[in-house]
């Protein structure tokens, strides 16, 4: 039996623009985040757009969502590297790029994992119950102190602490159920603070 992802890929291969839009909306931000590790934001967005144009052009080649992701990340990496090569001056930049390319494999893998994890965390935050999500957002995204959140939402300080704890545990549990083993809540909190 086909799952939803497989249905989308089958429709995408057949030229269904709605299926393409679903893939685009799901993967655009992670690809931009991935590119931002190597190039400025405006260029990352341009490269991402080019990559999705190529994805559509070769749509009949993809059998799974993992094939699509692999193509997008490899194409984005190559697009960024090509951009950097075009930007370099002939002599000084050539040496810099050579050193950069040597260090890139590890950095690219790390940034791919981080961008997908950030995307997963955002999805989990969006799925939290309303009050829990509001407290979590005010605390971790907007930097409010517990007392400020309690006053703003007319709840107790203890309730704020409990809701933050519930949110972190829920996000961690849901990510672990998807096969992601985090080294603890501290890593999760650090990742959340890096969300764009």
Characterization of this structure:
With 196 residues, the chain is mostly helical. It has 2 domains: 104 residues, RNA polymerase sigma factor, region 2, helix turn helix motif (Rna Polymerase Sigma Factor, Chain: A, Orthogonal Bundle), CATH 1.10.1740; 70 residues, Arc Repressor Mutant, subunit A (Orthogonal Bundle). It has 9 helices and no strands. The longest helix has 35 residues. It starts with a helix and ends with a helix. The mean pLDDT is 81. It comes from Niastella caeni. This is RNA polymerase sigma-70 factor. Pfam families: Sigma70_r2, Sigma70_r4_2. Keywords: Sigma factor, Transcription, Transcription regulation.
Brief account:
Keywords: Sigma factor, Transcription, Transcription regulation. The protein contains nine helices and no strands.
Oligomer category? single chain
Name of the CATH architecture of the largest domain: Orthogonal Bundle
Number of strands: 0
Low-confidence stretches: none
Per the CATH scheme, the topology name of the largest domain is Rna Polymerase Sigma Factor, Chain: A
Class by alpha and beta content: mainly alpha
Helix and strand pattern? HHHHHHHHH
Strand content: under 5%
CATH homologous group name of the largest domain = RNA polymerase sigma factor, region 2, helix turn helix motif
Reported for the largest beta sheet, the result is: none
**Rg value:** 20 Å
What distance separates the N and C termini? 37 Å
Any idea of the CATH class of the largest domain? Answer: Mainly Alpha
- Average pLDDT works out at 81
Helix share bin: over 70%
